[in-house]
Hints:
The chain has helices at about 5-15, 20-30, 30-35, 40-45, 50-60, 75-80, 190-195, 245, 325-330, and strands at about 90-105, 110-115, 125-130, 130-140, 150, 170-175, 180-185, 200-205, 215-225, 235, 250, 255-265, 270-275, 280-285, 290-295, 295-300, 305-310, 315-320, 330-340. The chain is an alpha+beta fold. It has 9 helices and 19 strands. Among the domains are: about 1-60, no CATH class; about 75-205, Sandwich (Immunoglobulin-like), CATH 2.60.40.420. Strand 1 (about 90-105) and strand 2 (about 110-115) form a beta hairpin. A 6-stranded mixed β-sheet has the order 10-9-12-17-14-15, with no helix packed on it. It has a 5-stranded mixed β-sheet with strand order 11-19-18-13-16. The structure holds copper (II) ion. Copper (II) ion (CU) binds near residues 143, 145, 186, 188 and 199. Copper (II) ion (CU) binds near residues 145, 188, 194 and 199.
Amino acid sequence: MAKLTRRGLLCATAPLAAAPLGLAAVARGRDVTAAPHDHSAHRSLATHDQRAAMIGHAAMIGEGAPAVGGPNDLDDLLYPPPALPYRPGRVRDYTLVATDEEIEIAPGVFFPAWTYNGTVPGPVIRATEDDILRVRFVNAGVHPHTIHFHGIHPTDMDGVFEIVSPGKELTYEFPARPAGFHLYHCHATPLKKHIHKGLYGAFVIDPKKPREPARELVMVMNGFDTDADGENNFYTVNGRTFYYARYPIRVRQGELVRLYLANLTEFDLINSFHLHADFFRYQPTGTGEHWEYTDTVMQCQGQRGVLEMRFANTGTFMFHAHQSEFTELGWMGYFQVGED
Ligand SMILES: [Cu+2]
């Protein structure tokens, strides 16, 4: 019994470019993995024409994009809660519940996830610098978990030693700092597994001096190893393949768009974001005075940053990982830029 490798999957999906449900049938894996391993079959699928067909695959838009769900399903992950002006002593309360869920990441492709609040990534947590962040964590899963926040906090709030057993809970409480764009994730061992299974999310700390008003978006880049071979079979932002190709993100020409981008992809060392037909400025970790002006940025696991852009032109503009393989396996979308 041999597993379908990521490379094999790429080859196998090529002829299915025009048939998204076919992709699902292959990617689901169980039937495929039960078949005798046949290297010649993999090779024969990787013809030049079939590789070329995948390029068309990457350019699909709207109904043709194999994405799960309706147009507003991911709104809570894409659009963060609003920034609040600094007010001394304010408490920001959140509740995160760890659950075990089968989530559908591509049409017909289910992943046995461990989640915070039922989604991968988990909810966007937001506070203003020096707010008291109070996160009640309930473990309703069957494995021990924690929440480890990036940022500055006391040792017993670090989510490393205070393991929360199934059925138990723990409240994390500390002042939110420093201002920037951070993340949170489970830190139980084996760490690689607890992160890859889906226990992570975005964590925005707004500076006391507010940022300029903008249309704000959050994207968490991730991958899913659906056949448990230690390699990702699908890549997404916010948890569903090709979702923003199916439902392009609407923005206005010239308005300030601020994108909080984080990389929680396990197994692959690097992920990246490339914007077509325009440039953005990029602030690593969402803090400090250093901004880079570019159209492509890469992030290692756990890295994150803030992108700011104003589209010069109206139209439909692709964004995607600049690792082409990630693009073809789900990490691709569009901005739909209108005049109003
Ligand atoms: Cu965990």
